[in-house]
Amino acid sequence: HDMFTFDPGFMATASCESKITYIDGDQGILLYRGIPIEQLAEKSNFLEVSYLLVNGELPTAQQLGEFSHAVQYHTMINESLLRFFNGFQYNAHPMAMLSGVVASMAAFYHDSMDINNPRHREIFAHRVIAKIPTIAAAAYKHSLGQPFVYPRNDLDYCSNLLHMFFAVPCEQYSVDPVAAQALDLLFILHADHEQNASTSTVRMAGSTGTNPYAAISSGISALWGPAHGGANEAVLAMLEQIGTVENVPKYLAKAKDKNDHFRLMGFGHRVYKNFDPRATIIRTMCHKVLAKLGKSDNPLFELALKLEEIALKDEYFVERKLYPNVDFYSGIIYSAIGIPQSMFTVMFAIARSVGWVAHWQEMIADPAMKISRPRQIYTGPAQRDYMEMSDRG
Ligand code: CMC
């Protein structure tokens, strides 16, 4: 027993070395490849951030052009892959469809997937970044019973996503640039967050040498949970449940009650013990986006602001250093641009798939890479003999 350090939840164990993302949880600092998230949020766009995360440096104009072209080249999915959706009931959770269909990419795109071949790894990165939005949109269309909408490569990344989500063959549809810009910013903020549960899952699965599409699918499954990416969906459900400001004290009391499973969704973080810098950016953005969309009087946003204000003054939350996290306000923006609640975590998955790819690439190229194989502290019975059934009580 003494041979191993007991560290449930990996609170104090570094599982790898990484050059991708830096977090200082006490000071609320988040850097992608050394660059502050605030600067990227203000000046960059999601595809450029994707290049940065995957390749380590900001691209030149030519590099970005080539990267965008490579991603666009792969936006369509195999037609047979589309038929997969017919096997799902219309009300299947989109995260279940996403993880299933992304795992099936291992079957469709195995032709060029030798994990020891750097060019194959590059094509894998392009395919994931290009095809996950198409698969996500197909999942949404399936849930509505609407025809699938093919990607449009003349549109930027997020405009294309909105087009695939909301266009229908019988009507003219033009993407609202405010919505596309808001989505792009949210995607930048969600693109990576070092060794969170889903990224660690991708690394762990990938460390066995499995097909990387299968590893990405395992990341999607890990992200789905309400303690992780599923929190954005849960926040909106919670705000709807709370309903009005008058009910806030009642729900705060529930969140503090250890006999009650209710938690304040969108609050608290394993690493941030000060504010979550992403939440700060999103809160400001929420004001702007709602104003631009003419939805400033959004009652859920008003409620969220009030809830934050009251919780941040409450001793319980102060003592435990519980602040709003990235998911607290993101759902309000998704809603305002017309994304349904059940698709919020899928949005998170699209953005985070870039981080998963970057981490998988880093791990596979690392000569020190070993299969992930944690040890345990055994607490079961000592050795004993098999008892015949006739002797069992
Ligand atoms: N509401 C009420 N109490 C909370 C909350 C909350 N949201 N979060 C933590 N606590 C309490 C917890 O009960 C514990 O209290 P005590 O010390 O008295 O037992 C203390 O704060 C420490 O919490 P913990 O669960 O030990 O902390 P953790 O690092 O294991 O969990 C967390 C982090 C994010 C899972 C947790 O804060 C949580 O469940 N938050 C709500 C879900 C959420 O918003 N998740 C999104 C995280 S950010 C984006 C992402 O990762 O996808």
From TrEMBL:
Keywords, alphabetical: Acyltransferase, Transferase, Tricarboxylic acid cycle
Q: Which domain of life is it from?
A: Bacteria
Which GO MF terms does the UniProt record name?
citrate synthase activity
**Which pathway does the protein contribute to?**
Carbohydrate metabolism; tricarboxylic acid cycle; isocitrate from oxaloacetate: step 1/2
The keyword Acyltransferase appears for this protein:
yes
Q: Which reaction does it catalyse?
A: oxaloacetate + acetyl-CoA + H2O = citrate + CoA + H(+)
User: Which InterPro entries does the UniProt entry name for this protein?
Assistant: Citrate_synth-like_lrg_a-sub (IPR016142), Citrate_synth-like_sm_a-sub (IPR016143), Citrate_synthase (IPR002020), Citrate_synthase_AS (IPR019810), Citrate_synthase_bac-typ (IPR024176), Citrate_synthase_sf (IPR036969), Citrate_synthase_typ-I (IPR010953)
What family does this chain come from, according to its entry?
A: Belongs to the citrate synthase family.
Name the chain's protein. Answer: Citrate synthase
